[in-house]
Amino acid sequence: MASRLTLTLAALGLAALLQPALADPPRAVVELFTSQGCSSCPPADALLVEYSRQPDIIALSLPVNYWDYLGWKDTLAHVAFTERQKAYAHGRSDRQVFTPQMIVNGKKSCIGSDRAQIEKAIQYTSKGRKTLPVAVNLSEQNGTVTIAVEETPETAQRDAEIWLLPVLKAQTVPIERGENRGKTITYANVVRGLNRLGEWRGGSARFEVSVETARRGGDAYVVLLQSTDAAKPGIILGAAKSPDF
What is the pTM of this model? Predict the structure, then answer.
């Protein structure tokens, strides 16, 4: 009997070890606007790879297309990312658009290769919290992703939207021309689309989308709950990442 109990407990312990670790709720979302044609960007791209390994940070690469004329067309760029960067600048009223630019929690602009500046921005925008203010949870079942925004004291009425971003967790690109000619750069969590799922006006809410749509063009995905101001992106209130992110 004792040996059977020992085997049972050992099996349960092994099963627990084999369970995937639950991801920490994020305390920050960092978006790097970068370009394969920008000579200043590789150090920022490498820094984003480091941030992508931190479980409480959602680190995203958004390649822009406005440096394509320099001799190398960015193979991952999308005009929607350029428009998002410009919308952030209009929202801040500083109109500063450059690469490498890091936007922290939808609010603070930083030089994308300046770790100290980025860390300061994370501390400033998180206001001492260990997580983003609004809890967003994801679950996958029967080919459907369910996104649940939880009712908390932080879910007061406000204008916000739910966005779904498919991502490629890693993409290595050999650059043959332009300012980075001869370099091979690995990009982390490259966004492949910006899909608006709906509005949020406070309280609890649920959104559903197919797993196929969530991953389209990528191999994982992120959900952002982001405030809006006159159709411009604002502070990120909550975020979640797919189980395999």
Answer: 0.88
